[in-house]
Amino acid sequence: MTNLLSHIAVFASGTGTTLQTLIDQQTQRGYYIALVVTNRECPAIERAKQANIPTLQSKDWTEIDNALTGHHIQLIVLAGYLAIIPEWICTKWEKRIINIHPSLLPKHGGKGMYGMHVHEAVWKAGEKETGCTVHYVSAEIDSGSIIAQSVVEVKESDTPNTIAQRVQAAEKVLLPRVIGELI
User: Identical fold at 1-83 and 100-183?
Assistant: First the structure.
């Protein structure tokens, strides 16, 4: 059955909650997670192992590229991956690497803008809305073409933590949907 599904690789650096969402929806959305790549020891590795998904922990981009080719990857999904993708990988895999970012890009993107840093910036700026963005990865951080966005209201009573919770919930709907549409 997996031969009929598009092979994707998920790159993660943290707890793997987004990875778990992608694992849970892979058959329904028409993709197969053929490889999980991490750049450090992290709980995402255990989630992948529990789902019998091969893993690669590496910072060597030639090794990573070879693994992607060896697993017949058609789409790379960055899901909480906290490393910069080298330009040669961005060029080789152009329009086949996507990322989910926890803001409505181009707002609150770029170097150092990830996770709670983004939600704190949204809160401090007094934004009335935020959300998440799925975009193609390019050599410039958070500047690739936007594929889709999901808007989340920012309430007066919000804190960075409550904003984060609602944005993460939106991410778990948007990302699997976009993957299913792209493949």
Answer: yes
pLDDT for the residue numbered 3: 43
Percent of the chain with pLDDT over 70: 97
Q: Which of 76, 66, 80 is nearest to 138 (CA)?
A: 76
Contact 104, 131 (CB under 8 A): yes
Q: How many of the other CB atoms lie within 10 Å of CB of 62?
A: 11
Residues 6+ away with beta carbon under 8 Å from 74: 6, 7, 8, 96, 183
Distance CA 124, CA 162 (A): 14
Is residue 14 predicted with pLDDT exceeding 80? yes
Domain 100-183, classified CATH 3.40.50.170, yes or no: yes
Closest CA to 32 of 65, 5, 55: 5
Pick the CATH number of 1-83 from 3.30.310.80, 1.10.10.10, 3.40.50.2300, 3.40.50.170: 3.40.50.170
6 contacts: CB under 8 Å, gap ≥ 6 = 30, 31, 32, 74, 75, 183
Could you give the residue numbers annotated as active site? 101
φ/ψ of 160, rounded to 5, equals -55, -35
Instruction: Give the least confident one: 27-31, 62-66, 172-176.
Output: 27-31
